[in-house]
Amino acid sequence: MEGPRKNGKFEEIANSNISLSEYLRLIYDLNRLIQYELLEKLLQNKDNLGAIVTLVTPGSDGRLEKGSCQSPLEVIAIIDADIDLDAYQKTLEEVINDISPTKIAKIIEMKGPQSSMITAYGNRYQPGRIADGRFIYGSQEIAKDSKIKLGKEIINLPSDKVDKIVSLKRDAHKATESGKNRIAGTDAIHFDLESGAVFFNPEAHQLSFKIGPLRLVQNGLLLEEVKHTRREKDANFISNLDANIVGRLNQLSDDRMLNLARASVEEIAEHYAFFLRLYHKSEQAYVKNKQVVFQLTPSETAEVAKRLKALSLLMDNLKIQKQPLK
């Protein structure tokens, strides 16, 4: 399935008249198909890759919620050997470029035995990259071990550094309320409830509902995972969680690890799916027609405002906290 055909399928799903739960399932399945296509090609070239590399995909790819093939699969290479990572990255990139001339995937980071799992690109505190990572190729055990290593790093993280993770949720909360934030030194407006305009333009760092409500749930959960890991000194906790956000919410609720009633957890999941589909719709409008403004109707704008407020309140209250048996 080539890029344009995949994008056509994503567009068809995003604009179809189906329930939010069905939408999530179809997006989940399409993401899995794309990743399986990459896996097949990697397995056909495993002699060129060697036996020391494990590949995981983070972010929306890891969560199986990407809504466009505009960007390739991001891949983190975890190397089980003390070698020159820069030199080996060139080898990996050559193999991936050979098997994927349409740029289905790209290496975004190399992690060796001494690399930190809690930071990205050397110094940015982004534990969600590994926490939400999904195994693609190599050793599933090494992929899981990377999450356990992340857990150990979280436990040993100095308290003053934890605020860098707290700020991820705090910033998402502000963006949910205002529809804007600052990215890479640029003031970006993502949505405007007064006019009902939703903006998607990667060149201007405008990313629709990704930066506000979606990040609020993702980083709100992440912060709770970090706090629980440190409180319980449980390095294995994150390694056992579903990478998919809605799947993780259900998992934590089933395990009686959330302080909210099941109905409230299901409401968070519904709001998340609602904003994910709107985000995908605005993204597809840009991919297809370079349309940077996705206009909501007055009734849609009212529903968005209502859901943003409800989601903010729910995420303010959500805690990962073992509940007693009744």
Layout of helices and strands:
Blueprint: H1 3-14, H2 20-44, H3 46-49, E1 53-57, H4 59-62, E2 73-79, H5 85-99, E3 105-111, E4 119-120, E5 124-125, H6 128-131, E6 134-137, H7 140-155, H8 159-178, E7 180-183, E8 186-189, E9 191-192, E10 197-201, E11 206-207, H9 210-232, H10 245-254, H11 262-289, E12 293-295, H12 298-317
Parallel strand pairs: 2-3
Antiparallel strand pairs: 1-2, 1-6, 4-5, 7-8, 9-10, 10-11, 10-12
Helix pairs in contact: 1-2, 1-11, 2-11, 8-9, 9-11, 9-12, 10-11, 11-12
In total, the number of domains comes to 2
DSSP summary: helix tally: 12
Q: What coarse outline follows from CA principal-axis ratios?
A: globular
Give me the CATH architecture of the largest domain, please. Answer: Up-down Bundle
Query: Cα distance, first to last residue?
Result: 50 Å
DSSP helix fraction: 55-70%
**How do the helices and strands follow one another from N- to C-terminus?**
HHHEHEHEEEHEHHEEEEEHHHEH
CATH C-level class of the largest domain is Mainly Alpha
| CATH fold category name of the largest domain | Four Helix Bundle (Hemerythrin (Met), subunit A)
Sketch the major β-sheet.
Answer: 4 strands, mixed
List low-pLDDT spans. Answer: none
Q: Structural class of the helices, strands and pairings?
A: alpha+beta
Using DSSP, what is the number of strands? 12
Mean pLDDT: 93
- The value of Rg in angstroms is 20 Å
Sheet-strand content, in percent, reads 5-15%
Which sequence of strands runs across the widest sheet? 3-2-1-6
